[in-house]
Amino acid sequence: MYAQMVKSTGQGVKSLDEMDPQERAFQERINRDEKIEPKDWMPAAYRKNLIRQIGQHAHSEIVGQLPEGNWITRAPTLERKAILLAKVQDEAGHGLYLYCAAETLGVSRDELTEDLLSGKMKYSSIFNYPTLTWADMGAVGWLVDGAAIMNQVPLQRTSFGPYARAMVRICKEESFHQRQGYDIMMKMANGSDAQKRMAQDALNRFWYPSLMMFGPSDKDSVHSAQSMAWKIKMNTNDELRQKFVDQTVPQAEYLGLTVPDPDIAWNEEKGGYDFTEPDWSEFFDVIKGNGPCNVERLAARNKAWDEGRWVRDALLAHGEKRRAARVVAAE
User: Fold this and answer.
1) Distance between CA 155 and CA 171 in Å, rounded?
2) pLDDT by residue (tens digit) across 74-84?
3) Rounded Cα gap, residues 248 and 252, in angstroms
4) CA distances from 300 to 64, 66, 67, 290, 309 (A)
5) Are 122 and 287 in contact (CB under 8 A)?
6) How many CA atoms lie less than 13 Å away from 325 in the CB half-sphere?
7) pTM surpassing 0.85?
8) Cα 286–chain centre separation
9) In this structure, how many other beta carbons lie within 10 angstroms of the beta carbon of residue 327?
10) CB neighbour list of residue 3: distance below 8 Å, 6 or more residues apart
11) Beta pairing partners, 272
12) Do the Cβ atoms of 138 and 202 come closer than 8 Å?
């Protein structure tokens, strides 16, 4: 979900008989649901795919602060301000947990950040849409964090130990974020006519971008088989999208809001809702950098990186000074 366009490297999924002994032993550990730890042997492609997925996930958490941070000073009450501030702080923490997990694979946080700032590494497409009203804070919590939880709960069972363990705390906090968003939507939907219209407008604008968060349709996502075999990815894009729709449509009905899809209908045979696919041309356009806020989001991250350079330099200098002092003291 936060790794929408991560492509597996390699030449397709090998059978156990096609693997050399080291690869076979590695795959058999994964098949037994054993966790792979940083110092364990792993295929180069497994390491590379993990760096891509965890890095993109971390970047999404960090960039995801921007649409919500925009509303901290404009929250309607002091309580809402404090809750939103705590939520944004959580997202920063999620990014740090994930950068730490990626660092165990031999890549530095600076390298990952430089790949983000250069456009080489992506973040979730959802954060390239603007948050125009306070109701959008509800839609982001309810829909965006709801979609995140749908993907991240299974990742607690992913094969790489540091990633799986980071997801445990992240999922607990994301559950709070979703409840916070749904509470905002409930207050708006049960408020004045103008507030209910605002809630409906937020749902209208965020519905399809939220469906896009799971990545392209399985028929167009041909690179996930190896990630599934390695248990880096636990479910297909379409499985997760269907589960999200099935969970969210009844929630919208409870709020008295209408999902902006005239073709939404319960399908008894498949035990889920039929729904209209997103406009995938829009998705790929946003991924390429042509979304409503792509330029603004990357500009904000570059500005923060440049203006924070003196802090990083000062911390490094202080660390060197302390190390030098310990050397002198030990002599």
Assistant:
1) 9
2) 999 999 999 99
3) 6
4) 12, 8, 11, 16, 14
5) yes
6) 6
7) yes
8) 16
9) 9
10) 52, 53, 56, 57, 215, 233
11) 267
12) yes
